[in-house]
Amino acid sequence: MKKNISKEQVIDTVLELLRNNSDIDKLNFREIARTLGCAHTNLYNYFPSYNDLLWESHSAILNNFIIKIKNRMSNEPTEHSLTAFFEAVVNMYMDNKGWFRLSWHEYIKGERPENDIETAKTANQILNDYAMDICGRIFPECPERKNVKRILHNTHCYIIGEISNYLLGRSFTDNETEFRTYVINEAAYMFRLCIISGTDTGSQI
To answer: What is the pLDDT at residue 3?
Structure first.
């Protein structure tokens, strides 16, 4: 049985166990330790409680999310950048359904760590930067940053709602390919429509 494990190994193991887990509640220190091949007491060297481990895993998911967005958007042609952006968001969630559940469905007990708050702020900043860059390249008149941020937030909430319905078996289709295509296109359409409407009328959306 292993005695020497690292904090990074624990996080990586949790992310892999969570990746497409449909019942996060069944995950615990003992299962994680069994996968690592160590005693579950070893995990307490890095995480005072299971909830501390979940918060760290949540931060790791946010970092993975941004990495995947950056990889997808590198060298993306301008005319396809908006669709590619939302494709990266939707596919990240759908390819890692357990991560989505932890991010948006699971209540994590305890006070939210400052590190997780800062990681989320950084992730939001990066997403907003991408959205602003896309708007500057594909729209004749680039809207104000605060409007882009608001529209992106609302569009993201739409994506979360659609995926939540799908995972709960309440979507308009159980065909995953059809579902992904629909949500990606609708998100891009919604975002574009709100940007154009706000820019043309001068109103704040």
So the answer is: 62
* Dihedral angle computed from the Cα positions of residues 176, 178, 182 and 185, in that order, rounded to the nearest 10 degrees: 100
Boundaries of every domain in the chain: 50-201
Residues 6+ apart with CB under 8 A from 189: none
Q: Which two tokens stand for residue 107?
A: 């209540």
In Å, how far from its chain's centre is CA 153? Answer: 13
The single residue listed with the structure tokens 């590198």 is 74
How distant, in Å, are the alpha carbons of 52, 117, 118, 124, 203 from that of 112? 9, 7, 11, 17, 36
pLDDT of residue 24: 85
Spatial contact of 68 and 125, defined as CB atoms under 8 Å apart: no
Note whether 55 and 63 are within 8 A (CB). Answer: no
CA distance 184 to 106: 24
The CATH code of domain 50-201 reads 1.10.357.10
What is the C-alpha to C-alpha distance for residues 196 and 188, in angstroms, rounded to an integer?
12
DSSP string over 14-66: HHHHHTT-S-GGG--HHHHHHHHTB-GGGGGGT-SSHHHHHHHHHHHHHHHHH
Query: Residues near 17 by Cβ (< 8 Å), separated by ≥ 6?
Result: 27, 31, 32, 35, 98
pTM over 0.70: yes
pLDDT band, very low/low/confident/very high, at 205 (cuts 50, 70, 90)? very low
